[in-house]
Fold this protein.
Amino acid sequence: MDEQNPAIDELPSKRQLNRATLIAAGVAAAILVTTVLPAEYGVDPTGVGRVLGLTPWAR
Amino acid sequence: MVSSAPALLSRDFRMRRRALLFVTLALAALGGVDALAHGVAEGDKGYIEQIGGAQIGAFLYLGAKHMVTGYDHLLFLFGIVFFLYRMKHVATYVTLFAIGHSTTLLAGVLLGTNVSSHLVDSIIGLSIVYKALDNMRAYERWFGVRPSTKAAVLIFGFFHGFGLATKLQEFSLSPDGLVVNLVAFNVGVEIGQILALGAILIVMGYWRRTSSFRRHAFTANAVLMTAGFILFGYQLAGYFVLEGA
């Protein structure tokens, strides 16, 4: 994975990459919807932000 | 020889634990400055707007502070140097990044370009995603080619500079001494970048010495990509919620 150009079969497989990308996007979306958006903008579609005391009206 | 095996194992374990401690401390340091991150802090805002004329020291400091406390720039920098083992390569890439962001910082403020800071910051979030995937060599797997990393660093550098420019333009900067202050801010940004880079490279140096680095490199870049996605969503949502677009 470094600058020394390893052979293609030493690189992560397409399956590993797809899985990692999907997980990264999924975790990011979950964190955004449950904590960042409620805390930053008072947007709380799941209600988790209110439960965690993150929304302005919950404070 | 048999008796040395456990000793080796335990040394490896100790080293790994030490590396973990450094990474944790680095993350804690990043988390601790969270409140200051992004724009220029509120207290500084009043100060910037009050002063007229050339204030080299103040703008040097603000530029450096912005960089050292700006987690989006730091994450991108972290992504850039992740697999750069030689100082010569670090210098090349960091110079490209500096050329990129200086160009648009200076041009953006001097030409008074008016772009949404939320949109620019969401692209900065994507730049982190891009570099993480580049480190994971995803483009080779997906498209058969790895786009020039140097070009990518330069081009995303332009966006980081636009981000800096929009932050500075949120203040009613006095036209008196603007150019001097702007250049001072820019030089401050570079000083802050060198300081932050030093810290990142020290931590990376310890981390790379551990035998687990190669195994954890993939996961670390996946985490970096997650952070990039979060910044992207955070800024894009800000654009729609706060700018009512």
User: Anything to note?
Assistant: Chain B is about 80% helix and 0% strand.
